[in-house]
């Protein structure tokens, strides 16, 4: 797809806004472009907002504004006494979207569930490697290939999933974007026509909005799904106006060119609150930002070096400069609002002279390193370039020379997974299901090395603790295990934990029905514009 020029993109958006006179059009000033439109292939929130929360549904969904699960495409389920068998009764009468490129001939059924999960699980599945270089990062990183025993079709409206071991977060995991349900019928058609890549370019699901078109790096268009099982949406058309600069997003919001925006500059928040045409939602974010060392590469393979660098970072200065009071320095790899947070752990103190001596004692002199800075704003890191510059100055004080590097967002995410990646990478995470496992195992478990585990850190003591925690449903026991895992993490220092931020969402005053998600999602089902 050819990129639009800035002028053409602006003209297209103006045309869409003018159309609101005859159809209700909601414009979201998105912060970036999606990596693709198949939620199973990716982990970025930008991509999930553009696909998983528009075109698709899952067996379970998260209740609006919470991390509690509720029925989605499965209207009910039962769990065997041993916790190893989950039987899902599927919702009858659910319609797939009809688009210009596909007209379904049947309703949603068990075949779609089995296709959607087995393509990520079984290496011999015809759809397992349909995108060149693509991987089922979430599915694999959470250890599901080792957990699943079988997925069986009991009848058209019943699916039974058997596990090899107990998995306490399993139901919550099925409510996450990677478990979105695709149309097997659509996939079969694409396969027969030799157009399998189209599944990642032209999505089709059961969700509230049907995909219309994507003009790369400019505009994504959707229309309300008229036969949506949850009821047709109040807005007729949904537009993602891709606007990477937060200041430009704010100007568009003030001018009425978009109705809602994510990730404002910290310096603009007070002006937003003072604008009579706007309203601002905010809540503590279920997130963490971090600097991940590649623990397999010298000298970052030495814990003494990692701990020395951590003591050289003035985290409070980074937080003050980037967030201006809208974040706090992070101690642990999970946010303090999450159950099992270990508040007995003490954070690294900022002591550059001590850090310099620690490097000398570790035999490290004249260290040069690369520091990767994200090119986009995320809730946990509004300005990675500024944070990197501050860390660069901090490291210079202890004799470490830093080169700041960056890439386009999709490339950044892909390159930072490499096991031989150099230096340290700024990244972060907003929880996907409210469970500590979604941070500790997903980001730091051995199964996630080469994927979400950007530190490439595999520690048996830590991994055994988080694995054991998943295998019990006793919350008190899980809490103890996760608290111990956080002690190991802090001792071994695969990351420098940076911050936990507030989640701030500004919008036009006439927007109703938007519910802020603790998971950082931007979903527009139930949203209306009231004149």
Automatic annotation (TrEMBL):
<dbReference type="Pfam" id="PF00496">
    <property type="entry name" value="SBP_bac_5"/>
</dbReference>
<feature type="signal peptide">
    <location>
        <begin position="1"/>
        <end position="20"/>
    </location>
</feature>
<comment type="similarity">
    <text>Belongs to the bacterial solute-binding protein 5 family.</text>
</comment>
<keyword id="KW-0732">Signal</keyword>
<feature type="domain" description="Solute-binding protein family 5">
    <location>
        <begin position="69"/>
        <end position="448"/>
    </location>
</feature>
<dbReference type="InterPro" id="IPR000914">
    <property type="entry name" value="SBP_5_dom"/>
</dbReference>
<dbReference type="InterPro" id="IPR030678">
    <property type="entry name" value="Peptide/Ni-bd"/>
</dbReference>
<protein>
    <submittedName>
        <fullName>ABC transporter substrate-binding protein</fullName>
    </submittedName>
</protein>
<dbReference type="InterPro" id="IPR039424">
    <property type="entry name" value="SBP_5"/>
</dbReference>
